[in-house]
Amino acid sequence: MRVIVESGVRAALSREGEMTLSSPRSKERHVYTPVATAMWIVLREYDGDLASAAERLAHEWSFDVVAVRAAMEAWVADWRKVGLVTTQQADGHPA
Asked: Burial letters for 61-89: b for 16+ Cβ neighbours within 10 Å, e otherwise?
């Protein structure tokens, strides 16, 4: 699955590692934990490639990759629900 950030979404980080995401479409601000922040950053580093991002975090955190991927999929579902991202399958079709 590829995660695509919607146009205009902005991220701000706090000193405590929390992240605030905002979208010009909804005008809402969403605050996320340091764990979700790390997931967002790694997803961006891997151009939205969820599988690769999950592998990287699992390695860095010494966690099971299946568990990390499941957690990331849950956050992506939340971000998609509030209009911050869209998703595509590997073949380019919407996920």
From this structure: eeeeeeebbebbbebbeebbeeebbbbee
Closest CA to 48 of 38, 57, 40: 40
* Cα 31 from Cα 21, distance rounded (Å): 7
pTM for this structure?
0.90
Instruction: Render pLDDT for 3-55 as a digit per residue (tens, 0 to 9).
Output: 999 999 999 999 999 999 998 887 889 999 999 999 999 999 999 999 999 99
